[in-house]
Amino acid sequence: MLLTDAPSTEAAPRTRLRWWTELPLILLVYGAYSAGRLLARGDVTSAVDHGLAILRVEKFFFLNAEHPLNRLFTREPWIGIPADFWYASLHYMVTPAVLVWLFRSRAVRYRAARTWLMTSTFIGLIGFTLLPTCPPRLLSAGHGFVDTMAQYSDYGWWGGEASAPRGLGGMTNQYAAMPSLHCGWALWCGVMLWMYGGTRLTKIAGVLYPLITTIVVMGTANHYFLDAVAGFAVMGVGFLLTRPVLRLADTVRARFGIRPFPHARGGPTGAPHGAGSSIVSAGCQTSASERIPRQRKVPATPGAAEPGAEPGASPTDAGDGTPAAAR
């Protein structure tokens, strides 16, 4: 597995990642994603048709959880208002926070995790481009959805155009509903918290965060259930592509004479397990002249010292039937 086959003892890689190189890279990728998402507007009529098609599929398979959740969020402000804040803020706060946490405390895991996130994000951008989709809140009123972000806009910084601050709604693509990267990024955060958090609290947070985010995006009428499923699927494809992307990046670095980063597989620095160590199994130790742990070759000549034997060890101490001298 990409993220789980390293030993439990972690060490910083020999080629260290630097924040002043990582930050511009992340900002560049996020800027490209945001710009591409904005430009991939598509035709409004096609986006509405795609949204209605998704809704029909969900109703056919009895997957339409958006309507009851949206009615609940609309009727109960004590649920709807926190949900709007959740949708408008945590997507942009939790993901960077998890990235920084991984960078600082899980350096061996960080590069693969960051590559997984970025690869999945670019796949999501392809989805926005090929399948512009109208979210439930923008469908005509006859379809029974209420835009809770607009309903509770007096409580937050957003207006009536998604989660963008008032007056900046025109700078967002409101028809980029499929796939839901709110759900996809939340799943990535949940996996990181579950695998590397180390405490029961972080594992619980790793489960609850993507689950609550999925409920929130449907209850606020920003996404369909299948948008969330597509977001999870995009993260799965990104996970499968992470290792090839890392190999490609290392090939490019090697071509330009830059030492490739070590991978977590086989140890923190990429060396095989046990390299340079005498520990072979269950704490047993061997020396170069031993055939198996605690058993040395019998000297050919009586009284001759065995190669690798400790100073002062007698020949009888090294016999096959006698335990070796304590070390």
Q: Spans with pLDDT under 50 lasting ≥5 residues?
A: 4-15, 265-284, 286-290, 304-327
H/E order of the elements?
HHHHHHHHHEEEE
Give the end-to-end Cα distance, rounded to a whole number of Å. Answer: 38 Å
- Strand content bin: under 5%
Task: Give the overall shape.
Answer: globular
Helix segment tally: 9
**Percent helix range:** 40-55%
Q: What do the pLDDT scores average to? A: 76
Tell me the number of strands: 4
Main sheet specs: 2 strands, antiparallel
Q: What tags apply to this protein structure?
A:
327 residues; mainly alpha; two-stranded antiparallel sheet; two-stranded antiparallel ribbon; globular; disordered C terminus
Characterization of this structure:
The chain has 9 helices and 4 strands; from the N terminus they run αααααααααββββ. It is about 55% helix and about 5% strand. With about 325 residues, the protein is mainly alpha-helical. α4 (about 75-105) packs across α5, α5 (about 105-130) packs across α9 (about 225-255) and α7 packs antiparallel against α8. The protein has helices at about 20-40, 45-60, 65-75, 75-105, 105-130, 150, 180-195, 200-220, 225-255, and strands at about 280, 285, 290, 295.
Give the SSE layout.
Layout: H1 19-39, H2 44-60, H3 66-75, H4 77-105, H5 107-130, H6 148-151, H7 181-196, H8 200-219, H9 225-255, E1 279-281, E2 284-285, E3 290-292, E4 295-296
Helix pairs in contact: 1-5, 3-4, 4-5, 4-7, 4-8, 5-7, 5-9, 7-8, 7-9
Structure described in brief:
With 327 residues, the chain is mainly alpha-helical. It has helices spanning 19-39, 44-60, 66-75, 77-105, 107-130, 148-151, 181-196, 200-219, 225-255; strands at residues 279-281, 284-285, 290-292, 295-296. The protein contains 9 helices and 4 strands.
